[in-house]
Write a structure and sequence with these properties.
This protein is of the alpha/beta class. It has a single domain, classed as Spore Coat Polysaccharide Biosynthesis Protein SpsA, Chain A, CATH 3.90.550.10. The strands form three sheets. Strands 1, 4, 5, 6, 8, 9, 10, 11 and 12 form a nine-stranded mixed sheet that branches. A two-stranded antiparallel sheet has the order 2-3. Strands 7-13 form a two-stranded antiparallel ribbon. A hairpin with a 2-residue loop joins β2 and β3. α2 crosses α5, α4 packs across α7 and α6 crosses α7. The longest helix has 11 residues. The radius of gyration is 17 Å and the shape is globular.
Length: 248
């Protein structure tokens, strides 16, 4: 089991088209939640678990995103921007862009997800560096947009299936991972016409019994993919920091 990781990858190369359709012009990671950019909550959580190098995979409007992101990165953390020239493709391609920079297990997160800091702390403590670890949520009834959620079927702590259209599932993918560098080989093999999703890599590792699910229990998280999710996140964001909890 692991106590700390020094590297984290955040995927933030996409356009955020569904959120922009609701009238937001900023990149998703910079959209304010209770007066702070969404990504700042993730950066706080990464600092708390000891991350010292942040690999930010950017693509669409990368200059605007990096201009907003750079001042937010804690002084203890080095920012390594990685440009994905094929940002229109799926998120597996974005992760593959980070492959040359990583040779040890790393945290992997999404630039448009919010979560309680304690979720990350507990997850990292339980992660096994030899496997792909995925934080899953079994509180299915609490998911805001279940149709769009990435579903997971488990057997004990093993992942046996993952996909948005699964007919049988017992958990939801939170977008929080601890990955071994081995994930890059699986993603490369999964590419079809130069494209692949992160779920393709998870599915392939699961088939080799190398993917493990870790339940987040009662911890809170939220994908912020459109205006409705943004509103839900604003209402629930008192869970994000001790400061807000104290003010409830």
């Amino acid at each position: 089991m692991m106590n700390s990781l020094t590297d984290a990858v955040i995927l933030m190369a996409g356009t955020g088209s569904r959120l922009r359709a609701s009238g937001k012009s900023l990149p998703k990671a910079l959209v304010p939640i209770r007066g702070r950019p969404l990504i700042s909550y993730t950066l706080d959580a990464l600092r708390e678990v000891g991350v010292t190098t942040l690999h930010a995979v950017v693509g669409w409007e990368s200059e605007m995103l990096l201009a907003g992101l750079t001042p937010l990165v804690p002084k203890e953390m080095r920012l390594r921007p990685i440009h994905n020239a094929q940002w229109q493709k799926q998120n597996g391609v974005s992760l593959l862009c980070a492959a040359p920079h990583l040779s040890t297990p790393f945290l992997l997160l999404m630039g448009d997800h919010l979560f309680e800091a304690r979720l990350l702390e507990t997850f990292v403590r339980q992660a096994n560096p030899d496997l792909l670890n995925l934080a899953i949520d079994r509180k299915i009834s609490s998911i805001f947009d279940l149709d769009d959620a990435m579903k997971v079927q488990t057997k004990g702590d093993r992942i046996v299936a993952i996909g948005k259209t699964l007919a049988r599932y017992d958990a939801i993918d939170t977008g929080i991972f601890v990955c071994p560098p081995e994930i890059f080989g699986y993603l490369a093999k999964a590419r079809r016409d130069g494209d692949c999703s992160l779920a393709d890599g998870v599915r392939a590792m699961a088939a080799d019994h190398k993917a493990r699910a870790i339940d987040i229990g009662d911890a809170w998280w939220q994908d912020v993919d459109d205006g409705g999710m943004l509103g839900q996140a604003e209402e629930a964001a008192t869970r994000l920091t001790g400061e807000f909890r104290a003010g409830e």
